[in-house]
């Protein structure tokens, strides 16, 4: 019987619709900043987003990305460290818009970011309205500590898949593990099936 | 320190809160009765673990603010958006139990035989391990000369103020208040910068030993300034608390 | 988001290696920088703990705890000496 700290609750909100909270998660009203490295500061004049398909590469500058149709989305996000935040408001370009400009038949992508972070996803999970390159949060430009100028947003998977400071997607034939996946986190990461670690 | 190095294992144990002392409006010292405490070195820290009824857990590290031989004490600053510090500074009371493990650490420690002259630089709650060092110096009768530079926002924010106002012989305390100073204030009135450090620090030629503790940006500025004054990097020991307080 | 230093993983190092290692010397396998573990850059607000070289920012160590088991990657460290 483990020790219980009298009167300790943490900062969780227990007053939420349980159907919106995946197993093992708790809801927070904060927006915790998690990071594996220093915040990059790529100047917008140098920033690009690329879709890489073997030797081919389609690249958008910041201005070109911003000129693409973008949309406001409100989604719930779930971090593998157990916090969930409901009704977060983002603005971004659907990844479908970007993938539509590239010929591809690869089953997987590896998202890559400034600073070397990577994460792997099946291409279907960044298609069909499931993912964005998000540059706005809560009505403001996305803060650098939350991944600005732009991050990947894939809310149906654990939030480590929503790579901060994203600079592109590599199209892949194999599902090659990214940064956290290499260290034992789940390759897919569905919060509703509690796929936190490899083998879950 | 030797005991901690040999021990090889850190086990969680339940301590009793013997006393809770408000140092400032946001800072409280918890004096703990730790039944299986094996002793500690000045500068070491301990880990605290809180567990809610549903099993939710949070863990934090706090420097031990008391000297070896004194009751174990930690000094906690309440962070407005903190998860653990509001509990430790507002909810927890004498008679409650607290799960902890320690002592931990072997780098940011000082023993009298480490010598000096000693330069201690504290940013906010970074004063905690340095106070342990000062008290240890006093209790061992060491005569190593010490200068303590303490940076706080305002006078009411100065932690251990009464103790720092009456330093032991051989200890000089220099304060800077970075946000607001009372009328008649004769200490420094700005954030620590290279010029300020240059006026306070022992000259590099005296082979001083510096220990710097506080928020990350504070520690890095001060450490860079000391190296700029000629302090060899191995003679500047640092402990970063993160942007807002504990670890 | 400020990084911490190796003091913040002193307890983790005891858990994983069974020894106090903050004064142990680490050598970065990318740039060769030599430092006590206490002076490395630590990011521990993450799905795991990432320790980087203070000189070149390369990843030196990664710690992930999954189901009570520690997974440690040290390949960024050329040597670790006590």
Keywords:
heterotrimer, A: 200 residues, mainly beta, Sulfite Oxidase, Chain A, domain 2, 3 helices, 32% strand, B: 247 residues, alpha/beta, Elongation Factor Tu (Ef-tu), domain 3, 2 domains, 6-stranded antiparallel β-sheet, 5-stranded parallel β-sheet, 21% helix
What's a quick, concise take on this entry?
The complex is a heterotrimer of chains A (200), B (247) and C (82). Chain A is mainly beta and 200 residues long.
Query: How far apart lie the N and C ends of chain C?
Result: 31 Å
Stretches of chain C where pLDDT is under 50 for at least 5 consecutive residues are none
**What structural category arises from helix and sheet content of chain C?**
mainly beta
- Number of strand elements of chain A: 11
Architecture (CATH level 2) name of chain A: Alpha-Beta Complex
Main pleated-sheet profile of chain C = 5 strands, antiparallel
What's the number of domains of chain A?
A: 1
β-strand amount of chain A: 25-35%
In DSSP terms (H or I, runs of 4 or more residues), the helix count of chain A works out at 3
Please give the share of residues in helix of chain A.
under 10%
Approximate helicity band of chain C:
under 10%
Write the CATH homologous superfamily of chain A.
Oxidoreductase, molybdopterin-binding domain
pLDDT average of chain C, as an integer? 94
State the assembly state of the protein chains.
heterotrimer
Can you walk me through this structure?
The complex is a heterotrimer of chains A (200), B (247) and C (82). By secondary structure, chain A is mainly β. In chain A, 8% of the residues lie in helices and 32% in strands. Chain A has a single domain, classed as Sulfite Oxidase, Chain A, domain 2. Chain A contains 3 helices and 11 strands. Chain A is globular, with a radius of gyration of 17 Å. The two termini of chain A are 26 Å apart. In chain A, 37% of the residues are buried. The model of chain A has no long low-confidence stretch (mean pLDDT 96). Chain B is of the alpha/beta class. Chain B has 2 domains: 2-104, Translation factors (Elongation Factor Tu (Ef-tu), domain 3, Beta Barrel), CATH 2.40.30.10; 112-240, Rossmann fold, CATH 3.40.50.80. Chain B has helices at residues 2-7, 85-91, 127-140, 161-165, 194-200, 216-228; strands at 13-22, 27-33, 45-51, 57-63, 72-77, 97-104, 118-123, 146-152, 171-177, 209-214, 236-240. Chain B has a 6-stranded antiparallel sheet. A 5-stranded parallel sheet of chain B has the order 9-8-7-10-11, with helices on both faces. In chain B, helix 4 (161-165) links the parallel strand 8 and strand 9. Mean pLDDT of chain B is 94; it is low at 1-6. Chain C has 82 residues and is mostly beta strands. In chain C, a hairpin with a 5-residue loop joins strand 2 and strand 3. Chain C is globular and about 35 Å long. The chains are: A mainly beta (200), B alpha/beta (247), C mainly beta (82). The B-C interface holds B 4-5, 7-10, 45, 47, 61, 101-102, 104-108, 215-217, 237-243, 247 and C 1-8, 10-11, 14-15, 18-20, 22-23, 36-39.
């Amino acid at each position: 019987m483990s020790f219980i700290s009298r009167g300790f609750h943490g900062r969780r909100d227990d007053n939420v619709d349980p159907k919106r909270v995946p197993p093992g998660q708790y809801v927070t009203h904060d927006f915790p900043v998690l990071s594996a490295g220093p915040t990059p500061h790529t100047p917008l004049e140098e920033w690009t987003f690329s879709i890489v398909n073997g030797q081919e590469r389609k690249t958008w500058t910041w201005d070109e990305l911003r000129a693409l149709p973008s949309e406001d989305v409100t989604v719930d996000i779930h971090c593998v460290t157990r916090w969930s935040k409901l009704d977060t408001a983002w603005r971004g370009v659907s990844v479908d818009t970007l993938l539509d400009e590239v010929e591809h038949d690869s089953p997987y992508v590896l998202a890559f970011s400034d600073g070397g972070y990577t994460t792997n996803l099946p291409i279907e999970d960044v298609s069909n309205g499931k993912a964005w390159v998000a540059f706005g949060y809560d009505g403001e430009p996305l803060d650098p500590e939350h991944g600005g100028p732009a991050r990947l947003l894939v809310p149906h998977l654990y939030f480590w898949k929503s790579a901060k400071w994203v600079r592109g997607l590599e199209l892949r034939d194999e599902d090659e593990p990214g940064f956290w996946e290499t260290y034992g986190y789940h390759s897919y990461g569905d919060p509703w099936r509690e796929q936190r670690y490899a083998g879950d | 320190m030797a005991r901690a190095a040999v021990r090889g294992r850190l086990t969680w144990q339940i301590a009793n809160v013997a006393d809770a002392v408000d140092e400032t409006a946001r800072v409280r010292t918890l004096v703990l009765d730790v039944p299986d405490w094996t002793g500690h070195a000045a500068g070491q820290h301990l880990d605290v673990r809180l567990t809610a009824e549903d099993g939710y857990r949070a863990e934090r590290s706090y420097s031990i603010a008391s000297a070896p031989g004194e009751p174990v004490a930690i000094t906690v600053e309440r962070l407005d958006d903190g998860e653990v510090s509001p509990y430790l500074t507002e909810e927890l009371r004498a008679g409650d139990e607290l799960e902890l493990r320690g002592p931990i650490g072997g780098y940011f420690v000082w023993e009298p035989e480490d010598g000096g002259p000693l330069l201690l630089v504290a940013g906010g709650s970074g004063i905690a391990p340095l106070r342990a060092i000062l008290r240890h110096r006093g209790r061992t009768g060491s005569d190593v000369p010490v200068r303590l530079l303490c940076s706080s926002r305002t006078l009411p924010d100065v932690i251990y103020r009464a103790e720092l106002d009456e330093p032991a012989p051989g200890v000089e305390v220099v304060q800077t208040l970075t946000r607001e100073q009372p009328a008649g204030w004769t200490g420094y009135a700005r954030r620590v910068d290279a010029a300020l450090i240059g006026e306070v620090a022992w000259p590099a030629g005296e082979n001083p030993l510096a220990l710097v503790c506080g928020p990350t940006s504070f520690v890095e500025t001060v450490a860079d300034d000391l190296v700029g004054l000629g302090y060899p990097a191995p003679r500047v020991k640092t402990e970063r608390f993160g942007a807002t307080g504990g670890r | 988001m400020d990084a911490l230093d190796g003091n913040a993983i002193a307890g983790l190092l005891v858990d994983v290696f069974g020894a106090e290692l903050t004064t142990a010397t680490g050598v970065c396998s990318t740039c060769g920088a030599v430092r006590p573990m206490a002076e490395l850059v630590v990011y521990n607000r993450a799905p795991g703990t990432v320790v980087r070289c203070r000189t070149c920012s390369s990843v030196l160590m990664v710690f992930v705890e999954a189901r009570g088991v520690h997974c440690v990657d040290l390949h960024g460290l050329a040597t670790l000496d006590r």
